[in-house]
């Protein structure tokens, strides 16, 4: 960095004029998308409030944002069971809303966690061994094509209505995307990379650890993102039976009781939790595979 000095003026950096524009550009890059999203959210909330305030839609079908907020607060606090009754209850169904959410996240963690362990192993073996792939790929595609609700009755017969059947359902929802993504990553490794590694004297183990695994890992992380999102969308189906505590079970029960504000509050919590999960996986994936898109 060079400096210009004069007898009558303090030292001034020659690079100083370029610092402010760079900072302003970076601020605009960060604030621009955030302000756009906030504006879109404000627009949706405004239209929602206006639509419900006009009375064009029955509150049973679409309650106001204020009613949904009241239901959210009520579900997270201790309150009277009814007006004029001294007895108080905790949240909804004797659990706070955050406890319902935590129970669902624990089930997701168990089911998807098991899929994260088994899925890459199965996909990697299928990708490396052609005879295994020829036998198991139709089975994997069959499992991938079945909707989660197709499993629920059989899983209840096998494992009962407790958490075990729910965890297995979430595992079966998450396993195929991860295995397929891993298989795609292994079979998609460029042959030039393999030939170059072998020409440099790398053995089979080194080719797998230094070439195949790093090239496959971004696909695996992408599969985990898809699998987690897909498993999270099945949380309501997993908690249809004996799903309390659980955010999906609470959404289902509140819907059967025509408690629309609470149902919408649960839906919003489910959506926000899904966005948070995806952001965490995306952040960890970027840290795990910093070479993605650079080679």
* Low-confidence sequence ranges: 1-7
Radius of gyration: 27 Å
Number of strands: 4
Strand order of the largest sheet: 1-2
Specify the overall morphology. Answer: globular
Which sequence of SSEs, written as H and E, runs from N to C?
EEHHEEHHHHHHHHH
Strand content: 5-15%
Going by helix content, strand content and strand pairing, the class is mainly alpha
How much helix, percentage-wise, in residues?
over 70%
Distance between the termini: 33 Å
Q: Output mean pLDDT.
A: 85
**Main sheet: strands, sense, barrel:** 2 strands, antiparallel
Based on the structure, what is the oligomeric state of the protein chains?
Answer: single chain
Number of helices: 11
Write the topology of this structure.
Elements: E1 3-6, E2 9-13, H1 16-53, H2 65-75, E3 78-80, E4 88-90, H3 97-128, H4 130-145, H5 149-159, H6 163-187, H7 191-199, H8 204-233, H9 235-238, H10 247-256, H11 260-288
Antiparallel strand pairs: 1-2, 3-4
Helix pairs in contact: 2-11, 3-4, 3-6, 3-8, 3-10, 4-6, 5-6, 6-8, 7-8, 8-11, 10-11
Could you characterize the architecture of this molecule?
The protein is mainly alpha-helical. 73% of the residues lie in helices and 5% in strands. Strands 1-2 form a two-stranded antiparallel ribbon. A hairpin with a 7-residue loop joins β3 and β4. The longest helix is centred in the N-terminal third of the chain and has 38 residues. The relative contact order is 0.10.
């Amino acid at each position: 960095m060079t400096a210009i000095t004069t007898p009558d003026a303090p030292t001034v950096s020659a690079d100083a004029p370029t610092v402010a524009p760079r900072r302003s550009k970076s601020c605009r890059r960060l604030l621009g998308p955030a302000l756009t999203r906030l504006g879109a959210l404000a627009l949706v909330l405004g239209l929602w409030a206006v639509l419900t305030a006009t009375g064009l839609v029955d509150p049973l079908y679409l309650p106001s944002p204020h009613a949904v907020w009241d239901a959210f607060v009520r579900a997270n606090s201790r309150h009277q069971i009814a007006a004029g009754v001294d007895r108080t209850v905790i949240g909804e169904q004797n659990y706070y809303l955050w406890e319902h959410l935590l129970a669902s996240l624990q089930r997701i963690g168990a089911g998807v966690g098991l899929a994260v362990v088994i899925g890459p192993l199965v996909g990697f073996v299928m990708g490396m061994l052609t005879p295994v792939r020829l036998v198991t790929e139709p089975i994997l595609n069959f499992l991938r094509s079945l909707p989660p609700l197709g499993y629920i009755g059989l899983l209840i017969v096998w494992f009962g209505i407790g958490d075990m059947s729910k965890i297995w359902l979430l595992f079966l929802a998450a396993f195929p995307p991860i295995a397929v993504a891993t298989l795609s990553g292994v079979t998609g490794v460029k042959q030039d990379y393999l030939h170059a590694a072998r020409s440099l004297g790398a053995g089979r183990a080194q080719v797998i650890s230094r070439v195949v695994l790093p090239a496959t890992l971004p696909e695996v992380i992408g599969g985990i993102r898809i699998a987690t999102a897909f498993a999270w969308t099945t949380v309501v189906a997993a908690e249809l039976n004996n799903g309390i505590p659980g955010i999906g079970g609470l959404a289902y029960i509140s819907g059967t009781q025509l408690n629309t504000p609470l149902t919408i509050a649960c839906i919003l919590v489910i959506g926000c939790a899904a966005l948070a999960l995806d952001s965490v996986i995306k952040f960890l994936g970027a840290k795990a595979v910093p070479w993605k898109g650079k080679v």
